[in-house]
Amino acid sequence: MRVITWNVNSYNIRKPQVESLLKEKEPDFLLLQETKVEFIAPEGFQKRGYYLYHAGGKGRNGVAIISKYPLEELKIGFQGLDEDDQQAKERILGGRYKDLWIFSLYVPNGSPVNSDYFYYKIQFLYKLRELLEKFFTPQEKIILGGDFNVAPEPEDVFDPLLLEGQICFHERERKVLKYLMEWGLYDALRVLYPHKRGIFTWWDYQFSSFKRNLGMRLDHLLITNPLKQILKEVVVDIKIRALPKPSDHAPVIADFEDRTDIEERIN
DNA sequence: ATGACTGGAGTTTCCAGA
Question: Is this structure's pTM higher than 0.85?
Answer without folding.
Answer: yes
